[in-house]
């Protein structure tokens, strides 16, 4: 299957490198508003196509699937054009601004008999899958603390008066959208849709959240999610059951899983798997779904995407964090 | 100054041992409803008095100050009898059920020209005092995660159908009162009274909270507190500022302080101080206040006690966790 890309930033480089590592898609070319940048990116990875017109990409007979990694706020309009033209799409997280967009895009994908995926690497890793399998060992779950607290060098620029995309509501930025999405995916993949969502953000002068605490309330279980782009911590994330707790090293790069028994308090390694680029797992899974036309797995992922997006939208809107695409 | 005790449990043993270690008070005797237990405890620590009548203890001319470590729900009625009889009181945390009791007890203490202290060891330790001094290094504070997640062996009994005091609303038990009080003291000693309190507890069948997440909202800063008696974690507690984060090993036994710079991400030890019994610091501070008649330090501690109690009361009542003494 022939893959093209939208976006020329670091994450697109990483994605195409991982695609090459897996060999599951053939990279054929890149789109950028700048023809020169598109050509440069395409050349770098051995593609023979480049596009500076989105319609040309959408209508190309030499492309089957497009990876979209433009600024968040542009995802929806670009993805819709691609789906309508019969292209499969892998859209970088966070997929869209709100559930309205999601439902509309899904409808278009179904009408055009193509697949729409959200790229989110953490829940596709082997260590996460081990966690999913081992979770019953913890007994009755009572609490979880899932965190992703990464100081962004762009916050230095922000403090100097320069608001980059990721700190801008115009581009659907903020800590929850950019980082909170990882621990939220972990929570919702493991525990399902919460009964109640309450977000306590620190709002920056630009209008987005620089950091915050999300409380996800389930029946007899509370999951607390922390995200921040303006402070730093390497503290692990944990899930606490009555029989013991699971600890993961990080909620976006899930590489190590440990277990602590509630009674004997001994820490025990469960799984460890370091891979320089853990995007290979999501790429492999998307390729499997496409090759096997695996509707069950597809709908599972799609529903997960929707619940995560719904949770983020609820959390934002509780606090008046609004994006341009929210305005109907 | 001659000290007597109420309560014969483990914590009272630890307190009297620490008193002996400091030499700041003379242990003279013990009270218990059981004359035999009182005598046994008194003998064990070289006291020559024992009481099975609270009035006898209150009216004894051989006692100046009483340490109260009875079940939480009994604190108020016992403390009031002692204060009215002109005894100073050190009452184990959590001091009372609610702010009404606190204000009434304080009024009685003032009228009788005696001091009323809440025993809470964590904020009196040298490492905590270093944290207080070093805090400005973190820059603008944005988030904190303070936790105390200790599986209680009494939860095994609870699961077997036996509700002990600490899991009973009748004795003003629960995770927030018993454990949450430590991280709440850390939060309020460092950051002051929160603008908003929101508690998300897991309520047990007995009516108290087995665990929960408290969100303390400050201006541009969110402190998240977790406590549990039904799960286990040894994860550290952290305070995140824009310049870097402070990490303490534990929020009740504060023995180690570390710093992580937000930019270079290097972990750096700041202070470490292991003391088998860190109660010696609170005992020393109470003795200093009494000897020097240090009203300033006394009122600082007293106000801190009141704000912590008010916060716990707000958190409980939001969730219908009510104690017998709440009924007016």
UniProtKB/TrEMBL annotation, chains A, B:
- Describe the location of the GFO/IDH/MocA-like oxidoreductase domain by residue ranges: 150-247
SUPFAM superfamilies assigned to the protein according to its UniProt record, in alphabetical order = Glyceraldehyde-3-phosphate dehydrogenase-like, C-terminal domain (SSF55347), NAD(P)-binding Rossmann-fold domains (SSF51735)
Q: Which GO terms describe its molecular function?
A: nucleotide binding
Which Gene3D superfamilies does the record cross-reference, listed alphabetically? Dihydrodipicolinate Reductase, domain 2, NAD(P)-binding Rossmann-like Domain
Coiled-coil annotation reads: none
Q: Where is the Gfo/Idh/MocA-like oxidoreductase N-terminal domain?
A: 2-117
PANTHER family from the UniProt entry = PTHR43054, SCYLLO-INOSITOL 2-DEHYDROGENASE (NADP(+)) IOLU
Q: What is this protein called?
A: Oxidoreductase
